[in-house]
Design a protein that fits this description.
Elements lengths: L4 H18 L3 E5 L4 E5 L3 E4 L9 E2 L1 H19 L4 H32 L7 E2 L1 H33 L1
Helix pairs in contact: 1-2, 1-4, 2-3, 3-4
Length: 157
Amino acid sequence: MIQRIQSVFLLLLALAMLSVLALPLWHKIDPQSGQEIALTAFSLAPTSAQSSVPATGTWLIAALAIASAAVALIEISQYRSRLSQLKLGMLNVLLITATLGAAFFYASKGEQLLNVKLTGTYLIGFYLPTLALLLNLLANRFIRRDEQLVRSMDRLR
């Protein structure tokens, strides 16, 4: 049921996690050698042709982002069972945190590939899981509020 506010939050969470797949997460340029390296959800690869840095697959980030989006969509469909929604929300917190951890791991791995003295820049794709984590926490709060409302109505009966 999309008419509930937590469903809107969960839908936005799924969109944010799917956007991680399309947007770059991290980028570093070495001005001395002219080498560039970029991190996406699928690879840590050089963007310049003359680079000697080998490409590395980062499928873990993509798999975790897809799993988090899928759990959010399943959580929307479980609107009749708020307790299972809360359990799926807890699982989603773990998946989103693992996505952030994997992105940070591969970004730190990329830092070591080029000039160590220079730091890379985190791009919008890196911050989207943080937004998704916030949306998940808001959705869980409203799910808990609905559960408390139902329990208080049961006490009145």
